[in-house]
Amino acid sequence: MATGYRVIVTAKEVIGRCPVYKPGSKMVIDRPVDGLVYINTKESDNICIHALSALMNLIVPFIHGVAAKDLGMSDKEDVGYARCPAPPPPYIPEESVIFELKREKREFPEY
Taking CA 54 as the corner, what is the angle to CA 49 and CA 59, rounded to the nearest 5 degrees? Predict the structure, then answer.
């Protein structure tokens, strides 16, 4: 077994409406070994490409060991928060999703 990280991104709050996420929807990103980062589609719900693209600049360093507090996501090491980048009013009604990003160390099978 190899030790790696997993980041679980959970929709904590939906402001307005969102056709993809509801509170509790999640996406799971695994990093079992150096150089391999992937979305675990077996454990993830639907994924919005707009939300994913906005979160990637936080997920990548976070899953490689940078603390959430160093990324400006919270005052904690392994839990942070980010928001979907929906355009603000008056361009569209107030609509957004608040995500919790939680990092866990875990054992993965050897590749």
Answer: 100
